[in-house]
């Protein structure tokens, strides 16, 4: 979690350069520097423990998921989506020890300017790639559900690879400003890792920060949220219209992933927005930051655990092997696509012709893992 100040720093040239000590809050996209020295030491300790616990759980769980998806399961479009989604969680989880130390040292950056750039660049990369992948998955499920025949003909691994490459390239491009504008500077005896958009002594950088925040908010939260909600509303409408009662385990898995993503990231953006547009009491700032930190930790480290349990009885998960549990969680249910294709055709074909069509469609799929139809993302 990157550190950000509670208000924006502004500088004016008045003989000697005075710092207007108004800094903004924790965000990948503004003068990041978390000047929350007002927080009591015990609160810092609790937050640091939470962050470090998230690291231990996240590395273990995401590492296991990545190994199973990458090495033990047949490569399909669906497993490729999840493979890269879990990779984004693993990248973010690996950053947690640095931020735990940062909090324990009362927000004194001791890792130097290079790590300042690298760590917050990596955090931003994880954030963008996560939301872009989950948005891609929601669009994929929409096409899979509402246009099953087209999806069955065009939903192929080579195309999925190109889409995933595009997601990573876009995330890299949007995270690059961290490498260019993040720097360390000393304030009140502490080193701070923060953005600096000051190009001249008389420049007021507020509007630059505002634009930076809005771009990240729109691309990393608002637009993906609207796309995801639209896709799943249409999916629900189509399922109701076609009387498709079996939605498949994958739908529940993706719904859980998306819900956890927005629960995790909405407080994060809310915290930054509150600091951008108005002054807030320190007590409110503390609550918002603590909530944002908790949400981010939950999102990147604990969300994958939901994949094994959502839609299943708790005891049943432990009665099966890990591989079987993963197969049930991440592989499409062929009956859903079968039912959907059959429903779409029966207005023009008799029952016998529809059955033959269903058989041929399913045979086009992998003999081991066959596709289903679906939900959202984190």
How would you sum up this structure, described in words?
The chain contains 14 helices and 4 strands. The chain has 378 residues and is mainly alpha-helical. It has a single domain, classed as Rhodopsin 7-helix transmembrane proteins (Rhopdopsin 7-helix transmembrane proteins, Up-down Bundle), CATH 1.20.1070.10. It has a two-stranded antiparallel sheet with strand order 1-2. The protein has a two-stranded antiparallel sheet with strand order 3-4. The protein is globular and about 65 Å long.
Task: Kindly identify the CATH topology.
Answer: Rhopdopsin 7-helix transmembrane proteins
**N-to-C span:** 16 Å
Question: Which CATH C-level class is it?
Answer: Mainly Alpha
Order of helices and strands: EEHHHHHHHEEHHHHHHH
Per CATH, the architecture is Up-down Bundle
Strand order of the largest sheet: 1-2
Instruction: Kindly state the percentage of residues in helix.
Output: 55-70%
How many DSSP E strands?
A: 4
> How many discrete structural domains?
1
- Could you list the spans in which at least 5 consecutive residues all have pLDDT below 50? 4-40, 333-338, 341-378
User: What is the mean pLDDT?
Assistant: 73
Alpha carbon gyration radius: 23 Å
Query: What composes the largest sheet?
Result: 2 strands, antiparallel
Number of helices: 14
Name the beta content range.
Answer: 5-15%
Q: Structural class of the helix and strand makeup?
A: mainly alpha
General shape = globular
Going by CATH, the homologous superfamily would be Rhodopsin 7-helix transmembrane proteins
Organism: Podarcis muralis
GO biological process, one term: phospholipase C-activating G protein-coupled receptor signaling pathway
Biased composition (Basic and acidic residues): 341-351
Keywords: Cell membrane, Disulfide bond, G-protein coupled receptor, Glycoprotein, Membrane, Receptor, Transducer, Transmembrane, Transmembrane helix
């Amino acid at each position: 979690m990157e550190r950000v100040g509670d208000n924006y720093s502004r500088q004016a040239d008045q003989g000697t350069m005075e710092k207007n000590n108004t800094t903004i809050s924790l965000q990948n996209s503004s003068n990041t520097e978390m000047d929350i020295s007002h927080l009591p030491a015990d609160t810092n300790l609790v937050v640091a423990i939470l962050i470090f616990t998230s690291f231990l759980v996240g590395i273990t769980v995401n590492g296991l998921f990545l190994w199973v998806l990458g090495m033990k399961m047949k490569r399909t479009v669906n497993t490729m989506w999840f493979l890269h989604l879990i990779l984004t969680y693993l990248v973010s989880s690996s950053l947690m020890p640095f931020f735990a130390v940062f909090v324990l040292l009362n927000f004194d950056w001791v890792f130097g300017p290079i790590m300042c750039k690298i760590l917050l660049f990596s955090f931003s990369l994880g954030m963008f790639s996560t939301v872009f992948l989950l948005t891609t998955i929601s669009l994929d499920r929409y096409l899979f559900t509402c246009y099953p025949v087209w999806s069955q003909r065009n939903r192929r691994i080579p195309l999925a690879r190109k889409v995933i490459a595009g997601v990573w390239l876009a995330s890299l491009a949007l995270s690059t400003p961290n490498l260019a504008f993040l720097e360390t500077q000393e304030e009140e005896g502490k080193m701070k890792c923060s953005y600096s958009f000051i190009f001249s002594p008389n420049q007021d950088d507020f509007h630059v920060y505002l634009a930076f925040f809005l771009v990240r908010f729109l691309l990393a939260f608002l637009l993906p949220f609207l796309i995801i909600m639209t896709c799943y509303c249409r999916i629900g409408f189509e399922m109701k219209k076609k009387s498709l009662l079996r939605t498949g385990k994958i739908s529940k898995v993706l719904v859980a992933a998306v819900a956890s993503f927005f629960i995790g990231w909405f407080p994060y953006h809310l915290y930054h927005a509150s600091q951008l547009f108005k002054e807030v009491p320190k007590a409110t700032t503390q609550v918002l930051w603590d909530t944002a930190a908790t949400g981010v930790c939950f999102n990147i480290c604990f969300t994958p655990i939901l994949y094994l349990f959502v839609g299943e009885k708790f005891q049943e998960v432990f009665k099966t092997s890990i591989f079987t549990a993963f197969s049930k969680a991440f592989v499409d249910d062929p009956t859903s696509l079968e039912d959907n294709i059959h429903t779409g055709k029966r207005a023009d074909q008799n029952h016998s012709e529809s059955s033959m069509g269903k058989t041929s469609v399913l045979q086009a799929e992998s003999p081991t893992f066959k596709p289903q139809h679906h939900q959202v993302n984190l």
